[in-house]
Design a protein that fits this description.
Its main location: membrane. The protein is of the alpha+beta class. Helices cover about 55% and strands about 10% of the residues.
Length: about 525
């Protein structure tokens, strides 16, 4: 009996020990990655600055390791500061890490509820991505390269006539390209109403899609407070933004449909896909939002990259002169560089890679998990927002020495890892406009270098105005406004611009720019 009792007691003790050990083991595997200690309720929210959060995240990584867990009201955050961690999670486990943080401000209040870039990885999202693959894949882009080349000449002509408005002209050019691809629409650069709608919508998108900027994203219940309430500034902002956003998404789409009924539309992403949709309302809705994804994705990003390019050229005349010498030698001065020249212009390509690295347009790229996961003995709960710190990877001194300096030779001569492999995102969410975006940016950089000198501006007394290099907070990182001087390199260059622009205008108005990928 006593033996039995002992046995029973020993078994119970062993059982308890097992449970305890299992508990320990479980708790060990349930450990979140390390991170700075936060406050009750507010978590780490006060440790994330609005200005340069990517730098603060990188610095946290220096203390905690390359993955850092943070808590802010409404979200568990996991910051990924190394290429390896980003690759292991966002690329290799893309099926788990391809949702998005669900912002109340951008999706519910502003009217971007159907936006591809903000959707979770749902069946609807995958249908939209399939359409975007067809319209922006390698052979589709190949089919509208002639249009992009033609557009470059018009861009230079506009730049020559109003050089002080270089950012606006760059954005109007991006609008023209994206509206042409999306809707076959010619002339948006001169259509004030549509340009204003698209321009405003990209601003609303960039301001509201940024994580943590709006209290209503952290406390969604706030969306029910009335707009007259003193702290309800976000409701008043949304009341202004929503009608603009809704009109911008619907108007060009409905116009394309109307033109199709009249038989007066050219080939475009929307018209070609609508032709196959047979009036199915779901498919039409996917096409509408995928078309919007093209101009929402293209206008701001390409304008931001090119703004950083102008700033870099004004600050580094020696880099500019070297790239110009390459163009003079390879292309000559009788024609403009074309996208097809890309492989023959390695230094110009290195300048482009360095622009994308120096100040990435998307410093922080947020994905979210759709289920619990484990990584390196850490537990990562479902709905964690996993943020790729693109800036930290592209400014890792072990990989890119003197990372804050502008040194294109790191790519053309030293074999540094290609910034273009990082700057366009990861896994299933990687940028669908990567090929056309690079072609557009390359064409702009190469043709501007071929024909203009970009230098620091001077004030009325002739003193040099030193441009400041300052990031702008928001989902798209563009430089704070700065002045530069943009002048044709020579009379021959000015003449080349005039001749090329004239020639572009003689090309048929409706280039058959489009064929879809298989
Ligand atoms: C040239 C500059 C560009 C840069 C640096 C850039 C960068 C990015 C990045 C980092 C992402 C997020 C990827 C991720 O979550 O992992 C993204 C998404 C996206 N980009 Fe781009 N992009 C550029 C141009 C374009 C262009 C030209 C288009 C369209 C024609 C475009 C359309 C989109 C869309 C629709 C998404 C959302 C994809 C999704 O959420 O699944 N982008 N881009």
């Amino acid at each position: 009996m006593s033996l039995l009792m002992l046995d029973v007691g020993a078994t119970a003790a062993a059982g308890l020990l097992l449970v305890f050990l299992l508990g320990l083991g479980l708790r060990k595997t349930q450990h979140l990655p390390p991170g700075p200690r936060g406050l009750p309720l507010l978590g780490n929210v006060l440790q994330i600055p609005r200005r340069l959060p990517h730098v603060a995240f990188r610095d946290m990584g220096h203390k905690c390791g390359d993955i850092v867990a943070l808590r802010v009201p409404g979200y568990n955050l996991l910051v990924l500061n190394s290429r390896q961690a980003i690759y292991d999670l966002l690329d290799s486990r893309s099926a788990v890490y391809s949702d998005r943080p669900q912002g109340t401000m951008s999706r519910l209040l502003i009217g971007l509820d159907g936006a591809v870039a903000l959707s979770n990885n749902t069946a609807r999202f995958r249908s939209c991505r399939k359409l975007l693959r067809k319209g922006l894949g390698a052979s589709a882009v190949q089919s509208f390269i002639p249009f992009l080349n033609r557009q470059s000449a018009l861009y230079l002509e506009n730049l020559q006539s109003r050089p002080e408005a270089f950012v606006e002209i760059t954005k109007r050019n991006a609008a023209a390209i994206s509206m042409k691809i999306a809707y076959g629409y010619d002339g948006i650069a001169d259509d004030e109403e549509l340009y204003r709608l698209a321009h405003q919508t990209t601003i609303y998108f960039a301001e509201t899609a940024v994580l943590g900027a709006w209290p209503v994203d952290m406390f969604p219940i706030l969306r029910f407070i009335p707009s007259w309430f003193p702290l309800a500034y976000f409701r008043r902002y949304a009341a202004r933004a929503r009608p603009v956003v809704v009109e911008c998404i619907n108007k060009p789409f409905e116009e394309t449909k109307r033109h199709m009924r009249l038989g007066s539309t050219g080939a475009s992403f929307t018209s070609m896909l609508l032709g196959d949709a047979n009036g199915d309302p779901d498919t039409e809705d996917y096409i509408k939002w995928s078309s919007a994804a093209i101009f929402l994705g293209q206008m701001d990003t390409t304008t931001a990259v090119l703004s950083w390019f102008y700033l870099a050229m004004a600050l580094h005349p020696e880099v500019q002169a070297k790239a110009q010498a390459e163009i003079d030698q390879v292309v000559g001065n009788e024609r403009l560089p074309r996208i097809e020249d890309r492989d023959s212009l390695p230094h110009v390509c290195a300048v482009m890679r360095e622009v994308f690295r120096w100040h990435p347009v998307a410093n922080l790229v947020p994905h979210a998990t759709n289920k619990d996961d484990h990584y390196r003995d850490y537990f990562i709960p479902a709905q964690t927002v996993a943020i790729a710190n693109v800036w930290a990877v592209l400014h890792d001194e072990n990989v890119y020495h003197d990372a804050d300096k502008f040194i294109p030779e790191r790519f053309s001569e030293e074999g540094a890892p290609d910034s273009l492999e990082i700057a366009f995102g990861f896994g299933r969410r990687a940028c669908p406009g990567k090929i056309v975006g690079q072609a557009h940016v390359f064409a702009s950089i190469a043709t501007v270098l071929a024909t203009f000198n970009v230098t620091k501006a001077r004030d009325a007394q002739g003193n040099v105005i030193e441009p400041e290099v300052v990031d702008t907070p928001g989902a798209v990182n563009t430089p704070q406004p700065f002045k530069v001087n943009i002048e044709p390199r020579s009379e021959a260059a000015a003449d080349l611009i005039r001749r090329s622009a004239e020639h572009s205008k003689t090309l048929p108005e409706r280039l058959e720019i489009f064929s879809l990928d298989a």
